[in-house]
Structures are given as structure tokens and as C-alpha cells.
């Protein structure tokens, strides 16, 4: 099995995914997922990481030493396609999360170094956009984009309809070129509706020194250390994924793969004969 694919496992205290800089063999992105029952709770430490807590589904209270955010959440499934509730925690901020219902919680982390306050990111704070055309359309929720305050983290969720592609045309963000491209590590946390579905995700470089194609199932994580990383859904199964990105410069700048950039042009969709 490729080391870019992480399958869910029972890791204790409701944790089913645990991606760290060490086990991913990179520098910036950390990503955990918890599945908690009503009344269960987890504690997050005060350390050098900033965090964005995304309520993928369910309701929760979030307590920090100075704040108590009660009754957060609205959607009970990510496939309701409404924006999530999230909480931003700067570094050196501990927190306790208490589930008010069955809760699927994503904990996105990266190095922190500033002096930003704790804040709730409500659905009304989330930028919503539709990208693409033809069989390359998706709905995007910009939870923590680069025009909103954070030290390192970028967080976004994407919905792709059955039989369509996303993160496409193929693009990469692995070579820092000022004003053109930034270096960003990235994780994809996948969900499917119905849940037995799957998608195909390829991660590859121009020279093919990295070239992996994975069958990705419900609650799998794909790690993207470098290269292009398109996703193709299978007919009958809608796809949701939560992306976490971080790198030395907090800016989302990328380069299209030249062979497929024409998908962005007026030549696509092609006329049906």
C-alpha cells in the first residue's frame, strides 16, 4: 500500500486519523479526525501548533482557558452541503471539545508563531464558490483562506458530484517561485455518499519520480507532499473532501500542468457530435 494513503483506524479516544509532520515525512501539516458519541470529550494541548477545528458533522461545545463556545454546529452530515462551523486556536492555546451529538471533528494543525485571538468561524464567515464547468465542476467552502488571518494554515472543503473530476486541471504547489507558485503540503480527507463509494486520486510529478494512483474510500486521507493531485469520482457516489495546506509562505499559488490546462479554456466542454 502506498505511504500516501492513510486508512481509518481505531487509535483511541475516538481518533480515526492521525497525520503528523513526522509520519508524513514533511514539515508543516498535521491532521487528526475524531468520531465521538454524545457526551464524549477530547483535550487538545497548549503547544507550538495553531489549529482549526472543523465540525465535519454534529454539534459541540469548545472550551479554552478564556472562552466557552457553546452549541456550535448545524449540519449532521457534510452532504447537506451547507458551510461548517469551525474554531481557530492560535498556538499555545489548550482546548476541550465536548460532543453534544454524534460528532465528526477534524483537527487541522500547522506551526504557529503569531498573536492572533481564538475565534469562531461561523457558516456566514465561510466563502462559497462554484468552480469549473462540464464534468469538472465543484462546490467550494473556503473555511480558512489566505485572505483571512492565520499563521500557517489554509483550510477548504470541496464537493464533487458523481462521475466528475476536481482538483483539476492538474495543478501543483511544490516549487516556490515568487508571485507564481508557493510550497504547500496538503492532505485530503475524503467522504462519500453513499458511503461504500470510492474515487481515484493520482499524485504525480512532471518527471514521474512520484506517480501514485489510489482508490480512495470513505474516511481515507491522501497526503500530497508534492506534484499534481487530481480527483476523479465514480458514477453513483458524490464526494466530499476537506483540504489542509501549509508551508513556509501562507499563500495559495499554483501552476497548472500544461497538457491539461486547456480544460480551463473555451475549448471545453467539447461539442458533442
Question: What would you say this structure looks like, in words?
Answer:
With 273 residues, the protein is mainly beta. The protein has one domain (5-264): Jelly Rolls, CATH 2.60.120.10. Helix content is 1%, strand content 44%. The chain is built from one helix and 23 strands. It has one helix spanning 21-24; strands at residues 5-6, 15-19, 30-36, 41-44, 49-57, 60-63, 68-72, 86-89, 95-99, 103-111, 119-121, 127-131, 138-144, 154-160, 165-166, 171-172, 185-193, 198-204, 211-217, 221-224, 231-233, 238-246, 255-256. The strands form five sheets. Strands 1-20-17-22-14-13-12 form a seven-stranded antiparallel beta sheet, with no helix packed on it. β6 (60-63) and β7 (68-72) form a beta hairpin. The mean pLDDT is 97.
Structural class: mainly beta
Strands ordered across the widest β-sheet: 1-20-17-22-14-13-12
**Regions with pLDDT < 50 over 5+ consecutive residues?**
none
Fill in the CATH topology.
Jelly Rolls
- The 3D shape can be described as globular
Sheet bearing the most strands, described? 7 strands, antiparallel
Architecture (CATH level 2) name: Sandwich
> In whole angstroms, how far apart are the ends?
42 Å
Amino acid at each position: 500500500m502506498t505511504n500516501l494513503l492513510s486508512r481509518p483506524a481505531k487509535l483511541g479516544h475516538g481518533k480515526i486519523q492521525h497525520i503528523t509532520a513526522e509520519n508524513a515525512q514533511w514539515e508543516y501539516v498535521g491532521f487528526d479526525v475524531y468520531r465521538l458519541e454524545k457526551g464524549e470529550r477530547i483535550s487538545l494541548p497548549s503547544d507550538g501548533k495553531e489549529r482549526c477545528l472543523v465540525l465535519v458533522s454534529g454539534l459541540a461545545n469548545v472550551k479554552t482557558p478564556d472562552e466557552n463556545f457553546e452549541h456550535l454546529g448545524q449540519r449532521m452530515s457534510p452532504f447537506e452541503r451547507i458551510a461548517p462551523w469551525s474554531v481557530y486556536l492560535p498556538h499555545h492555546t489548550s482546548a476541550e471539545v465536548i460532543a453534544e451529538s454524534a460528532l465528526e471533528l477534524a483537527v487541522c494543525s500547522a506551526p504557529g508563531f503569531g498573536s492572533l485571538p481564538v475565534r469562531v468561524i461561523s457558516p456566514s464567515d465561510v466563502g462559497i464558490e462554484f468552480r469549473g464547468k462540464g464534468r469538472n465542476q465543484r462546490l467550494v467552502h473556503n473555511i480558512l483562506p489566505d485572505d483571512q488571518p492565520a499563521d500557517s494554515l489554509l483550510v477548504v472543503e470541496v464537493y464533487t458530484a458523481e462521475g466528475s473530476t476536481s482538483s483539476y486541471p492538474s495543478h501543483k504547489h511544490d516549487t516556490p517561485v515568487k508571485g507564481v507558485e508557493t510550497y504547500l503540503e496538503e492532505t485530503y480527507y475524503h467522504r462519500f455518499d453513499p458511503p461504500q463509494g470510492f474515487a481515484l486520486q493520482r499524485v504525480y510529478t512532471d518527471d514521474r519520480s512520484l506517480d501514485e494512483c489510489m482508490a480512495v474510500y470513505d474516511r481515507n486521507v491522501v497526503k500530497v507532499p508534492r506534484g499534481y493531485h487530481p480527483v476523479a469520482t465514480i458514477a453513483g457516489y458524490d464526494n466530499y473532501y476537506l483540504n489542509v495546506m501549509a508551508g513556509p509562505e501562507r499563500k495559495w499559488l499554483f501552476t497548472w500542468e500544461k497538457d491539461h490546462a486547456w480544460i480551463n479554456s473555451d475549448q471545453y466542454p467539447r461539442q458533442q457530435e
